[in-house]
Amino acid sequence: MRWAKPMMAGVSRIPLDFLDSIPKVHMANDVVLLAIVIVDTVKHRRLHPAFFWGSLFLVSVQALSTWISRTSVWLHIAQVIMKPFA
User: Fold this and answer.
1) How far apart are CA 12 and CA 53, in angstroms?
2) Where do the structural domains in the chain lie, given as residue ranges?
3) Mean pLDDT per segment of 10 residues, for the chain of length 86 residues?
């Protein structure tokens, strides 16, 4: 699953108009992830447990990060972190 982080960066840089928000980028990542899971399942006639657990982890982290990013606590932390750069 080491490919997941570069995949998110790559998908978010695709110059498509509909990838204008983090949830939409997460959905695009999930589509790519689903395609990889389907190819692995068809090719090996079963889904490898590492792909299953890694995919579940990636989708869970995406959902959690989307939820956390909207909390007032995170917004305060982000403002403190970004204050020196403003």
Assistant:
1) 23
2) 4-85
3) 56 63 79 87 88 87 85 91 86
Q: pLDDT value at position 15? A: 63
Q: Is 33 helix (H, G, I), strand (E, B) or coil?
A: helix
Residues in the chain, total: 86
Whether the CB-CB separation of 24 and 18 falls below 8 Å is answered with yes
Burial (CB count within 10 angstroms: exposed 0-12, middle 13-18, buried 19+), residue 41: middle
What's the count of helices (H) and strands (E) in the chain, helices before strands? 4, 0
pTM above the 0.85 mark?
A: no
